[in-house]
Amino acid sequence: MKKVEHIKDAMAKGSWLTYRPEIKILDCTIRDGGLINDHGFEDGFVKAVYETCVAAGIDAMEFGYKADKKIFSPSDNGDWKFCDEDTLRRIVDDNPTDLQIAVMADAERTDYHHDILPKSESVIDIVRVATYIHQIPTALNMIKDAADKGYRTTVNLMAISTIQERELGEALEILAETPVCAIFIVDSFGSYYSEQIRDLTVQFLAAVEGKGIEIGIHAHNNQMLAYANTLEALIVGANRLDATINGMGRGAGNCPLELLLGFLKNPKFQLRPVLKCIQEEFLPLEQKGEMEWGYKIPYMITGQMNQHPRTAIKMRAGENPDDYVGFYDQMIEEE
After folding, report:
1. Per-residue pLDDT tens for 130-154?
2. What pLDDT, in 10s, does the model give residues 3-27?
3. How far is CA 119 from the centre of its chain?
4. SS3 label, residue 232
5. DSSP, res 131
């Protein structure tokens, strides 16, 4: 009964015929897309995405990671793996726009004491801490550190589909007591269906009730459900929505920004700049054949099996990228 009441309360905020002004969109094209090319995007491409987000009325843009250079070599990774201050300012200068600048800090992979400067010295607005459940103690320190430095903070709870229900409840209780402004449901493997997203969103909303914390969603498209699952979370009451231009992202990619803008009724969001960016920047990139993202059968297989897509990514980069049956048999044998 309590679950049903939460759903009714959330849906009372708006319907598909109206809009909720509290909904915020974060574009994570460069950060998630960077997982395809080791974050080696050229400045012109990043600048085009930035200008598109500004023109489209997007609320925040995630440029990349704050990765520890002792773990990830700068010679093997592009600038957007580290998002140094001078790198960001090459694109945004002092960011004289309403668009907020975000970076992701992975638990146990970020030298946050050293690499995340005080907010007064940085153009960054939001630090997004990403954590697996076993890393939560580290994540708590990172959240506090970023908040103490003056940043807005959020947390992405990764690979939720692998977490036991009791452990998830305990994790949410802990995270609800932190200074984060949002907690994100992350369907890391693209394994969830809309009914499961609905239940998770209700659970997350209940955990933060009265805390001033909003719920967000970051969906992957392994089963071609990233958009549908994002809408499901939105309808139930999630206000923070992750998306990427042309669905660009690791493996099967993410919820396409253009689909989301076409659904939302908020007049501040503009679809045309996104379509223009896809036409002028993304189509040529795809035609070069240097980067692949989007729905493919191997990603479907890992999604249905609730497995990390790394095996599918490796297979697509190998000698037999279209040997779907062989890959399926391999996955079944290893399950």
Report:
1. 999 999 999 999 999 999 999 999 9
2. 445 444 544 454 555 678 899 999 9
3. 22
4. helix
5. E
Where does the chain hold its CATH 3.20.20.70 domain(s)? 2-288
Q: CA dihedral in degrees (246, 248, 254, 256; nearest 10)?
A: -10
d(C-alpha 76, C-alpha 82), whole Å: 12
| Greatest extent of the chain over all pairs of C-alpha atoms, in Å | 55
**Could you give the 3-state DSSP secondary structure of residue 156?**
strand
Q: Distance between CA 262 and CA 249 in Å, rounded?
A: 20
Q: Are 188 and 310 in contact (CB under 8 A)?
A: no
Helix (H, G, I), strand (E, B) or coil at 78: coil
Phi, then psi, of 87 in degrees rounded to 5: -65, -50
Q: What is the DSSP letter of 217?
A: E
Q: How far is CA 122 from the centre of its chain?
A: 22
d(C-alpha 288, C-alpha 42), whole Å? 14
Amino acid letter for position 111: D
Residue found by looking up tokens 């240097």 in the block: 290
pTM for the predicted model, two decimal places: 0.93
20: left (phi over 0), alpha (psi -120 to 50) or beta: beta
Q: Which CATH class is domain 2-288?
A: alpha beta
Q: In angstroms, rounded to a whole number, what is the distance separating the alpha carbons of residues 331 and 186?
A: 23
Counting every residue, how long is the chain? Answer: 335
Residue 226: name the closest of 31, 59, 32, 53 by CA.
Answer: 32
Please, are residues 243 and 254 in contact by the beta-carbon 8 Å criterion? yes
